[in-house]
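Re-run with default settings, no changes from the original entry. Doing this only to confirm the output is reproducible before filing.
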Amino acid sequence: MFARGGIYVVWTPIPDYQSLFTSLGFELLPDARSWFWGPDHPSDAFVLDLTHIGVEPRIAAIVGGRRPPRTVTPLDMERALQTALLHWHDDGRLSSSTLAELLGTTRVDDLRARVAGAVDTRCGHATPQVAQSYRALDLAYLTHGQSHERVAEELAVSRSTFYRLLRRGVSDLATTLAHAAHVQGEQ
């Protein structure tokens, strides 16, 4: 069944089965908890998405004693990227960030290099509007020391335009990083 790919959802109140599903790479869906076996037996839901990663990389990780890769959606990446950008110059927070986990590294230098590389690559092929979004993102977060107000002045845009540029830049970069993570997960 797993060889076909797809998305699988399971529910169980049995702790041993919950551990098994977690070890196989199923992700807990905390909002889907139910008590269909009674008030003393909470039943947790787990999901396994094989639509992008496939079975082979998942089995290779399990056999190799590693955590199975997970599907990284642009929304997951966007949330992780936004949080990481807020702490971009804090090595400790960055190395333990969700972004580091999604990109498969705990080395801060590697994480920063991958993000900077994605920015450089994307800017080389971007429209002027997207390039301006990346410039706003670079000045606001990646280059240390300037307030958002100062960056808006430097870009000669209003504050509301500046924040729109940031949202566009973060969203576009997250999509780029999610695609790169997906491609890396297939290798």
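The first helix runs from residue 15 to 23. The mean pLDDT is 85.
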